[in-house]
Amino acid sequence: EAKKMGISPMTLSRLVASEKLFRTEHGIYTHDPDWLTDPLKKYVAACTLYPKAVICGISALTYYDLTDMEERQVWIALPAPNIIHNPRYRVIRPSGIAYTLGIEKHSFGKRIVRMYDLEKTIVDAFKYQTEEVAYKALKGYLKRKDKNIEKLCDYARRLKKPLDEIVTVLLSEE
After folding, report:
1. Under 8 Å CB-to-CB from 42, ≥6 apart: which residues?
2. How would you classify residue 19: left for phi > 0, otherwise alpha for psi between -120 and 50, otherwise beta?
3. For FRET with 79, which of 53, 57, 109, 116 sits at 20 to 30 Å CA-CA?
4. 3-state DSSP percent of the chain in helix, strand and coil, to 5
5. What is the 3-state secondary structure (H, E, C) of 20-32?
6. CB contact at 8 A, 56 and 67
7. Full-model pTM
8. Angle separating helix axes 131-142 and 118-128, nearest 10 degrees
9. Rounded to whole angstroms, how far apart are CA atoms 7 and 1?
10. CA–CA distance from 48 to each of 5, 74, 128, 143, 158 (Å)?
11. Long-range contacts of 86-94 (CB under 8 A, 24+ apart)
């Protein structure tokens, strides 16, 4: 976009040096430093660099405040055959319904952040995280006012990770 606007790489470097622009990622700049710490806007770079990326895993659990694990990498879901070699990202490769189910889109100007919804994030935790992380996330989810247990169990069945019995047991413990 900068090139289309006639802004040279040297000008970008000078703007960064004078702190009028902030470089969030190679080739991605912002004038608003809040984008670097905002719980959702910080994923704009990933979804801009990789247009089919969906924020998932520990990143989604962190956004929904369902884990206390440190987010060392941004977790993204990318359909095959997209291959990336970037140490900032942890890539999972779901296909079919495992990729498309539960995608929410959040717009920031021209930019869109795609992230799995709460229920898909919980089901995925049982697939991609340790048992401890998954159970802790599920327990946190069940305490939320915006939980949708029917949707959670439907997603779990459709993704072949049935959680009905676990949810029943955890709800009876409350």
Report:
1. 35, 36
2. left
3. 109
4. 45, 15, 40
5. CCEEEECCEEECC
6. no
7. 0.79
8. 160
9. 9
10. 18, 13, 24, 33, 29
11. 86/49, 88/25, 89/46, 89/50, 90/57, 90/58, 92/56, 92/57, 92/128
| Residue-wise pLDDT tens digits, 53-76 | 999 999 999 999 999 998 899 999
The two three-digit tokens of residue 21, written as one number: 């622009």
Residue numbers of the chain with a pLDDT score lower than 70: 1-5, 9, 12, 15-16, 21-39, 171, 174
* Degrees, nearest 5: CA angle 38-88-46: 55
Encode burial over 6-15: b for 16+ CB neighbours within 10 A, e otherwise.
eeeeeebeeb
